[in-house]
Write a structure and sequence with these properties.
By secondary structure, the protein is α/β, with parallel strands linked by helices. The chain has one domain. 31% of the residues lie in helices and 17% in strands. The chain is built from two helices and three strands. A three-stranded parallel β-sheet has the order 2-1-3. The longest helix is centred in the N-terminal third of the chain and has 16 residues. It is flat.
Length: 95
């Protein structure tokens, strides 16, 4: 059985949206490589699947609650604040 993480992409409406899309692609590819399953908002559930508002946070909380038996931990990302290449390196997640 693979590890399952709840994943949150935080964003603000004034940040460039493409950063969320790029971060989602990067994180999904990285987690797939590491055999980590994800539970996260779909790109059509909120603006690009990110959490910007209280309503988005509520939707994410409901999703996590519905999957609480699968989720072992959670991780949140704010693409605008992260150095893009730094968090893409698998070694950052090990030990």
């Amino acid at each position: 059985m693979n590890t399952s993480l709840g994943v949150i992409f935080g964003n603000r409406d004034f940040f460039p949206d493409h950063l969320v899309s790029e971060a989602r692609q990067d994180i999904l590819a990285l987690f797939k490589e590491m055999n980590i399953e994800t539970v996260m908002l779909g790109e059509n559930e909120t603006k690009l699947g990110s959490v910007e508002t209280y309503a988005h946070a509520k939707a994410c909380a409901d999703l996590f609650k519905a999957n609480r038996d699968r989720i072992e931990a959670s991780s949140s990302f704010c693409p605008i604040l992260a150095m893009k290449r730094a968090w893409r390196t698998p070694s950052n997640f090990q030990g």
